[in-house]
Amino acid sequence: MSDAPITVFGPDFPFAYDDWLAHPSRLGSLPVESHGAKVAVIGAGLSGLIAGYELMRLGAHPILFESGQLGGRLRSQPFEGASDIVAELGGMRFPVSGTGFYHYADLLGLQTKPFPNPMTDAAGSTVIDLEGETHYAESMADLPPLFHEVAAAYDQALEEGARFSDLKKAIRAKDRARIKEIWNPLVRDWDERTFYDFITTSPAFQRLSFRHREIPCWKSCGSMSPIVTVISVFSSVVWNVYRKVFGGGKPMAKAIGQRGPACNP
Asked: CATH 3.10.20.600: does it fit domain 126-239?
């Protein structure tokens, strides 16, 4: 497999935004006569703030319209009397495949650290409770065979039903044509069908017990979630590899909003 990283370039976003950011010309330029042109940006969530930031960098004059508060889904609320303890009311973890996000996080000098997702080193330990049956684990090796059998069946179901390895290779290569070749039949066959449907009709799970089919629908992303959405997310995210921003997600929105970039000459 290629050493190229998995990024959010994928079925739902076949655009190499991180490559454009790394290019010497960045996202482009405006003619001198357009410098200072007013551009309306609807919404001051992270996307709107970044759009405004890049427009300023091009020499335009962005005007942001926001009905709520700065940051959109990035909402960090310090506890009263304990400013160093933050509750995340919106986006709180960011996949390492989100290279565009980390471009701006690094640009603004924000520090990140691993997010304590279940079964990761950052979590330390994980407790799984299924109908009163409790399992304590510090790694996958601590879980009973049933969970390993479910994990193996899930990997097999993705390979047999979604050509998962081929899809991830195409994403790594940023091969739009190959992604489309794999993705279009999935949409044709599975659009508006659920994660539970995918699991229960998979030959890999049909060979196992009903209990095996229950577990992924309890512990994963929701049994009624559209399976094409699940596959899209899993294929373009290094699953379980997330980071969080020191001080919460809101500081990134504030930093983008307060820092004025140097404009292109």
From this structure: no
